UniProtKB/TrEMBL annotation:
This is Heat-inducible transcription repressor HrcA. It comes from Candidatus Ghiorseimicrobium undicola. Residues 11-75 form the Winged helix-turn-helix transcription repressor HrcA DNA-binding domain. Keywords: Coiled coil, Repressor, Stress response, Transcription, Transcription regulation. Residues 78-112 form a coiled coil. The lineage of its organism: Bacteria, Pseudomonadati, Candidatus Omnitrophota, Candidatus Ghiorseimicrobium. PANTHER family: HEAT-INDUCIBLE TRANSCRIPTION REPRESSOR HRCA. It holds the Pfam family WHD_HrcA. Negative regulator of class I heat shock genes (grpE-dnaK-dnaJ and groELS operons). Prevents heat-shock induction of these operons. Belongs to the HrcA family. HAMAP family: HrcA. GO terms for molecular function: DNA binding.
Amino acid sequence: MVKSIDYEKRKNQVLAAAVDFYITNACAVSSELLARDFNCSSATIRNVMSELEEFGFLAHTHTSSGRIPTDKGYRFYVDNLLCEIDMLQAEKEKVLHEYDTSKKELESLLEKTSDILSSLSSCTGIVSFTDSKDRIYYKGMGLILNQPEFKDLRRIKLLVNLLEEKKRLLELINSDLNEKFKLYIGRELPFDDIEGCTLIISEYSVNKRPQGRIAILGPTRMEYAKVIPAIEYISGLLSDLLTEF
């Protein structure tokens, strides 16, 4: 049976609503709850959610009758349904002020950038600088570990080990040097031991030559609409600051 355009639109709307709810609340969403935002019955929404689950975009949890997004669901959401939210001018001015008040030294600038990335995303901010030392900085480990997804001690240990191993961390954020912007969701990540994480990477340059990468590492339940524009803004700003250095 061929689905109508209206049905496909409704299906996308339900998926977007389910992902948005889970990102905000960190708990499974039910058809009854989503039905409040749609002009239809909970039974209709339940049928749509069942189909989304059948195609791998949503999944049941062990502790709830509701559903949560899968890696595939997040990927479709980011690629097709996301409405990015530009940084407010006040946020940009705050970032500029933080740079203005930091020491005018390369290391201080890179450390400040990792701190800003962490603050904007409530996740871990990472900055690499390609030179003879292959420098790398990160801030915000505590922020990501405070997320409800990281209550399992095994997952915490794996994540901490990654962040503390400079070679592996560099390998992670330099895993695809052919792209200036890269977003890995869940099992797309090149390391199998990072479960339930998203990594967003953006290249920055000095005098239009690639110099390093900035990244945000957090749970797949990340505020993509806010974080993606933020990291793109910071990579451009850092490129300008380093060119003027």
